[in-house]
Amino acid sequence: MNFRIWAAAALCAFGLTAVPAPSQAQEAGGTLVYIVQPEPPSLASFLSTSGPIGLVAPKIYEGLFDYDNDLKIVPALAESYEVSADGKTVTFTLRQGVTWHDGAPFTSADVAFSVMEVLKQVHPRGPNSFREVTSIDTPDEHTAVFNLANPAPYMLRALSSYESPMVPKHLLEGTDLRNSDLATSPVGTGPYKFVEWKKGQYIRLDKNEAYWQDGMPYLDRLVGRFIPDASTRTAAMENGEVMYGAYGAIPNIDAVRLRDTDGFSVTTDGYSMINPMALIEFNTTKPPFDNPAVRKAVSLAIDREFLIENIWFGYGKPATSALSSNFAAVGLYKEGMPNYPKNADVAGAIALLDAAGIMPDANGVRATATLDLIPYGEDWRRAGEYMKQALAEIGIAIELRYEDVPTWLKRIYADYDFDFNVNYFYQLSDPVLGVHRHYGTDQIRQGTHFVNSSRYSNPELDALLAAGAQEADATKRAEIYGQVQEILAEDMPVANLFEMQFLTVYNDKLKEHATSAMGAYGSFDRAWVEQ
Amino acid sequence: MTFWKLFARNRGAVVGLGILVLIAVMAATASLFFPADPFSLAGKPMSPPGENGFLLGSDSLGRDVAAGIAHGAKTSLLIGLLATLVAVGIGIVMGALAGYYGGPIDNLLMRVTEMFQTIPSFIFAILLVAIMKPSIESIVIAIAVVSWPAVARLVRGEFLSLRNREFVQACHTLGMSDVRIMLGEILPNCLSPVIVIGSLMVATAILIESGLAFLGLGDPNIMSWGFQIGAGRTLLRSAWWVCTFPGIAILLTVLAINLVGEGINDALNPRLRERT
After folding, report:
1. CB-based burial of residue A219 (10 Å sphere; 0-12 exposed, 13-18 middle, 19+ buried)?
2. How confident is the model at residue A21 (pLDDT cuts 50, 70, 90)?
3. Full-model pTM
């Protein structure tokens, strides 16, 4: 498919998904109390992609688009768009009559400001999403024309409110973006207005009466509660205090139990735009992981199915390549890559180490290293304990290290003071948005979180990534990413472990909360509660 | 009457001692009965007690709970004893100096002691371990740092009451050095309460260590009971055995140490000697 056809197809899809018919009569009113875990550091979704911010901010801010569960574009602040024949101009027609929560009108100036001055400057992924945008023209209040240096088809997948929120120019212009008041009292155009943030307890949002979708939202109020202890969260769900918990707020073991309990349901929907991948980042600049053979041996020695079955209770899918198998839908995923076994290949790993001349000493130890673990909960600790055992079998003796989040982030992404690190990344809806940041030489950005901490640098791969970002032809693009996956399976600067499946646990009284591909990072505009 | 006879009058203390000896033997022979690393994935995960060759069941990764308890005993006793030794050491030095010299030195040292006493000890221990990065050393240091003030207070009190006794004055007249008087004359006379408080402190230290490990602040490379409970906590409803057995181990150990401590107290406390 070339770019023009691709764009046309997207336009068609656009028309098809205007307003889906409701499956059941909605009841207006009521309050939805849901779990926000952990408490967000701020509500500045234009500054940080931190998960808990995503649970709250997209209810307040909106993006140009939303996406439905089939990843089709749903109009939000932009009513329609048009891509020029050469792919270098994208014109958005904005919705009329939209106002910010403070009453000011939403215009094309806000769009230009949000993208050029905010997202491209201070957002973690914005510089990637909008890398080709050179300027934005605003011929009138409701038209925004994006001028691109090169075609950027992936950009249209990065316009959700979670990924690229539109922020009010009149409140942000000329202020210090990183220390804005908006971080703790956001003003958006979304279905809910920010009311109150009681630190350590909850965030309260109330219905935006002036919302542009008539009759919506159905709910009068949203309350995001912070409950630090996992078993307390489960108890709160069971006794009806909260009705919704996503992103593992309810531990898998309890989710599996609630799934079989009347009145509760569990779904893996609502994560398709996120595409989370559990992985190991290797420090490729120092022994033992400066040697690709050792990195591959680690990948071979880990039993991916064991991790999924015993730690994540069956929710997950073994990784088989640098790209998630979810990219098969767009033809970018390549099957049959070596070095990502489902079950541990101990003999293969040992053969690799032997061939590389890394021999065991008297105690059978070939190499020693410290494994850092993402401090996001018990599951990761269990995974670390498992890996310690699994790697001992191939003679790699490891020490485990747990630290608090800021120390860990600093160690991995600012000080580079680590050997290897278990983590998970969102691969998002296009490799340019979620995958390039692991591997590109230009993504060795000291101090920026969740980028190329391996400090892997391969000019051949850089060239392929640059070509892949701009290639409009789907077949050629698939070829490029096929080569990318081949190189990465051999060099293995990052060993993908498994495609994570996050669980959302909800009370059956809550309806239509998963209408967007963004799931819990969506707006909840159509959610309603059976009284 | 000999010490043992005095001690044995307290039946509970004898039972406690028996349990403690058993636990010590278990710790010492852990590597004989469970030669494999207690973290090793020994078999089918979540096996109930008695199944798949697991006496006390296995946890979510298939680690043997019984092996964990045996090896964890080593950690618990080691940390309990080490931390207590360090705490008693610091406490004796601080208390002896304060009690013996009195005046401004006493004032200074006791204000420092009070400063430590005003901070809730467990929270302080969490803070220290979090700052230092969890490891055996940091845990021992943290427990010692939060435990010594009680010893210091006690030793100071004893020194205050002993320093003006005739035998001490006699030592002064003989020209003995301060250090010699403190260590050779006064300290042996106030050792009994220190031994009692020390023995009870071992129990507290084990509890603090378990609490830290439960909260995920234990040394991740060393098996301990607190770690087992912390790791099994989320499984409580589906695999009760994972944290129940280590919990019983902690309960028995702490109980045994307390009983023994009381027995020592009975035996060493002259006021209780005639108690029947």
Report:
1. buried
2. very low
3. 0.79
